[in-house]
Specification:
The protein is α+β, with helices and mostly antiparallel strands. It has a single domain (3-110), classed as Winged helix-like DNA-binding domain superfamily/Winged helix DNA-binding domain (Arc Repressor Mutant, subunit A, Orthogonal Bundle), CATH 1.10.10.10. Helices cover 56% and strands 13% of the residues. A hairpin with a 5-residue loop joins strand 2 and strand 3. InterPro entries: ArsR-like_HTH, HTH_HxlR, WH-like_DNA-bd_sf, WH_DNA-bd_sf. This is DNA-binding HxlR family transcriptional regulator. Residues 7-105 form the HTH hxlR-type domain.
């Protein structure tokens, strides 16, 4: 397929979602609002990369950052309506992966 035939919006969507860790961050936030450290430990991502991705997703309007004026300050990240709209897509990818992909060790376990 020629790149000139690609819809610019589709191309931008793929550019956003294909960034490393982005899909996993969004998938993790489907469970509800979470603090930085929870996301970081859940998907085993470095703090620096997580911070960059969250800023990118916030800039795109996919993630909302909420600061609670408590002592110490609490910050939570959640999906916006735009981010929640990705849920059916991610659930379908999850379903597809369960049907079609093996992880290392699966073959040894099945034997």
């Amino acid at each position: 397929m020629n790149q000139s035939n690609l819809c610019p919006r589709f191309e931008k969507a793929m550019s956003i979602l294909s960034q490393r860790w982005t899909g996993l961050i969004i998938y993790q936030l489907l469970a509800g609002p979470q603090r930085f450290c929870t996301i970081e430990t859940s998907i085993m991502i470095s703090g620096r990369v997580l911070s960059e991705r969250l800023k990118d997703l916030e800039h795109e309007g996919i993630v909302k950052r909420e600061v609670f004026p408590e002592t110490p300050v609490r910050i939570e990240y959640s999906l916006t309506e735009k981010g929640r709209a990705l849920e059916p897509i991610l659930k379908e990818i999850e379903k597809w992966s369960q049907t079609w992909l093996e992880i290392e060790g699966d073959a040894a376990i099945q034997k």
